[in-house]
Design goal:
The protein is mainly β and 410 residues long. The chain folds into 3 domains: 126 residues, Immunoglobulin-like, CATH 2.60.40; 109 residues, Sandwich (Immunoglobulin-like), CATH 2.60.40; 136 residues, Sandwich (Immunoglobulin-like), CATH 2.60.40. Helix content is 5%, strand content 40%.
Length: 410
């Protein structure tokens, strides 16, 4: 008789419980079946999809064959996708048994399906539980209004020049509405001085769509604009989804003016100050950041040949209402200054932004901030830094936020 090797989450549904094998989760190579979505990449939608079923307590000599059945449950009901008879040796027992989802099933419709398999034995039937969700997306992204174009979050005026690139190193754009908005959608940007460039125009950059902003945004490294000539220019885009589908045709172009070569390049900016606290993988200052910033957010201004002993260094913290540095919060501003000393010239200077209620409290719920400084010598500004950027999220899921006074509702 068959005995159970491993204890899993499988749930016997009928028959003699002592004779029903436990079932491990199935595997689909190239598909992440652990993230709750299981998006099937476009390349795997061009042929039957191979599914690997881990071996269970397969039959021994003298026992009848087991029947492996693969199913999905979707919007149009439950469907049997494949069936396989597994007999006692010979043939040899395999580590995995391969079944396929036929191309006709795979491409029958866009769907989210719960995929699972069952094994019929002399002891009864057992099904893999829990089932595994997979997403089959046959529908490409499509703009709701084909004439829509990107929009600068902060439009360059009167033209995109060197100072704009310094001020907006990651240039944010508003993404127009499109039919299916889902996690891991991304945008590919194209730049040209032509109003209607060739369709094979090389991409200038790509970025994930940020759905935490309203409306959604995506950002382009501003260095890409340097490849344009001065004068009229246009930016175009396509939207891609996690499957690999993309919007067709490429969007119309957003016109703007470029004035990079005909303007005086500003003094080479000084390095951005460095934030003195750990940020999470998305660049957020959070309640878990170390060291604690409750007594103040620290920034390090590193030694630099452009800063001399006796110079005045003026530091500015600027808060923003969104998490992409789009709209300045005029109340979340902190300014301080210091005199550069010989010690600073060796070790740098630490600036502490120590006004939590005015600088961090307004930004606590998915906002952002920057830190920058200017160097003044004998009453004349002789240098300014690039901005240092961070996002801010001091909230807990319980509706509280962290503060110098502990957890506070807000």
């Amino acid at each position: 008789m068959t005995t159970i090797k491993n204890s899993t989450s499988s749930v016997p549904v009928e028959g003699d419980l002592t004779n029903i094998p436990s079932l491990a989760p199935l595997i689909i190579k190239g598909v992440d079946t652990t993230n709750g979505r299981g998006v099937v990449p476009q390349a795997l939608l061009l042929a039957p999809l191979k599914v690997l079923v881990p071996a269970w307590d397969t039959p021994v000599v003298g026992e009848p064959a087991h029947t492996l059945s693969l199913f999905w449950l979707s919007h149009d009901g439950e469907r049997l996708l494949a069936r396989l008879q597994v007999t006692a040796p010979p043939p040899p027992i395999l580590d995995f048994y391969e079944v396929e989802i036929k191309l006709a099933d795979l491409r029958s419709a866009t769907r989210v399906a719960e995929l699972y398999y069952s094994v019929d034995t002399e002891g009864g039937t057992n099904s893999m539980r829990p089932s595994i969700p997979i997403t089959i997306d046959l529908d490409p992204p499509r703009l709701l209004r084909p004439t829509d174009v990107l929009q600068f979050v902060v439009p360059p005026s009167p033209a995109l020049n060197e100072q704009y690139i310094v001020d907006h190193p990651q240039t944010a754009f508003i993404i127009p509405p499109y039919n299916i908005q889902a996690p891991y959608d991304w945008v590919e940007f194209y730049l040209s001085n032509l109003q209607d460039p060739p369709q094979n125009l090389a991409a200038a950059g790509r970025a994930l769509v940020d759905f935490t902003t309203q409306p959604p945004t995506a950002s382009l490294d501003a260095a890409a604009f340097r490849k344009l000539n001065d004068g009229a220019a246009h930016i175009f885009f396509r939207i891609y989804d996690a499957t690999g589908n993309f919007s067709v045709p490429r969007s119309l172009g957003l016109p703007f003016k470029v004035n990079l070569l005909g303007t005086t390049t500003p003094t080479r900016p000084l390095p951005a100050p460095e934030i003195g606290h750990s940020l999470n993988k998305n660049g957020y200052l959070t309640c878990s950041s170390t060291p604690s910033f409750m007594a103040g957010v620290s920034w390090l201004i590193a030694p630099h040949a452009g800063i001399r002993e006796g110079d005045e260094v003026r530091f500015v913290w600027q808060g923003f209402n969104e998490n992409n540095w789009a709209t300045e919060n005029l109340n979340a501003v902190f300014r301080t200054s210091l005199r550069w000393t010989s010690t600073h010239a060796q070790k740098g200077a630490t600036v502490i932004v120590d006004s939590f209620d005015t600088t961090l409290f307004p930004l606590r719920n998915f906002a952002s901030a920057s830190g920058s400084y200017e160097v003044w010598r004998d009453g004349t500004r002789v240098g300014e830094s690039l901005p240092g950027y961070l996002r801010v999220d001091l909230t807990y899921g319980t509706g509280f936020y962290c503060s110098p006074r502990g957890k506070v509702r807000g």
